[in-house]
Amino acid sequence: MSNKHLRVIRSDEALQVAPVDTGGRWEDRGLCRQVDSEIFFPDKGESTRPAKSICARCEVQTECLEAAMRRNEPFGVWGGLSERERRAMRRKKAAA
């Protein structure tokens, strides 16, 4: 669900419709808000696939991953990556 509304713009030639950003936070647009959050925090040995499947379709996946990397998020699936995958990404960046 988007935090944008439509605004009608009147011009001499035609009516146009343009999105208006209402200033909502990206976190509020995440698909994860529509499901039980436990799916993003699987127990050891459980699959991360269900969470990653949701992330793959989410419009704010990039923002989510960037925020998790900034916070060094230690648990769960964020932006489509598990904690192990985020640690590997950090190591790779540090080595570069």
TrEMBL record:
Post-translational modification: Upon Fe-S cluster removal intramolecular disulfide bonds are formed.
Location within or outside the cell: Cytoplasm
Pfam families (alphabetical): Whib
UniProt-listed InterPro entries: 4FE4S_WBL, Whib
Cofactor(s) recorded in Swiss-Prot or TrEMBL: [4Fe-4S] cluster
UniProt domain 4Fe-4S Wbl-type: residue ranges: 31-88
Superkingdom classification of source: Bacteria
HAMAP family: WhiB
Family that this chain belongs to: Belongs to the WhiB family.
Protein name, entry field: Transcriptional regulator WhiB
Species: Micromonospora tarensis
Gene of this entry: whiB
